[in-house]
Amino acid sequence: MGIMASWIRNTTIERNEISDAPYMGIQVGNQSDIKSPNKTAGYNTVRNNKINNVMKLLDDGGGIYTLARQIGTQVTGNYISNIMRGKWAMDAPIAAIYHDSCSEYISVENNVLQQVANDLFYQESTNCKVKNITQLNNTDFSEHIQNQSGRTEKYSEPLKREAEKAKLKGYKIERSQDKYSNGEGIATEKAGSASVIFNKDTGSFYIRIAYLAENKGQSQFKLYINNVLLESWTASRPAEGLADEFKSFTTSSITLHRNDVIKVVGIAKGKAQARLDYIEIFN
Ligand SMILES: [Ca+2]
Hints:
Helix content: under 10%
Largest sheet: 5 strands, parallel
Strand order of the largest sheet: 1-4-7-10-13
Radius of gyration: 19 Å
Structural class: mainly beta
Number of helices: 1
Order of helices and strands: EEEEEEEEEEEEEEHEEEEEEEEEEEE
Shape: globular
Bound molecules: calcium ion
């Protein structure tokens, strides 16, 4: 196994290169207490990793493997290739991305799955089925995603700014273990803004805004850099069975300069309160 991450929360696994391994590339999540499944893993990010030629000996696994409910978990930008059944494998499945028992509330977006025995596998044969997995734009070729995965000399640690620690206008700090990855975020009944200062050297970065999809309405969000509008989006709807669901919006790559002001404006809709959790800047 390349990376094994069991009962973890708020953990990012990114820009690794894992190859030629007898078993899996990355496992995120592990068996949870079925009576309180939200109390174990959640809010994890598996991003821009390069995984090649794993599962060489064993079966019942994959390039990236998830287990148990983990609200707010995102698997994105990974380049997974050559996941084929080895000659010692038995009858269990092998897949580029393998969702095992109870995997739930995970988004799987913009991954490249190339030369694989199966692309995505969902465990259906146990009494705790996989459900509420969002799948978007997974493909077998993307020059951009392939180039963006694995190690890079330009790598810098993501900058994560909690919304509740930003400069706020019209927003109030709210404490809720159910709503926010770290138990704290911000909410507004009308409209508000949260601003942070970018404090790294000039470079190309992505900005990811973690917000709450609320079933009471679809709030609007706008992202400004130095008061110039860059993006606007509407909150998505939470998955079935959830009152709210952690979601995120990621920009395309943009140039940021030291002391740029990154401002997110939220406009409440109905009884939804344009809730924000954090702003993350990564390259
Ligand atoms: Ca927060």
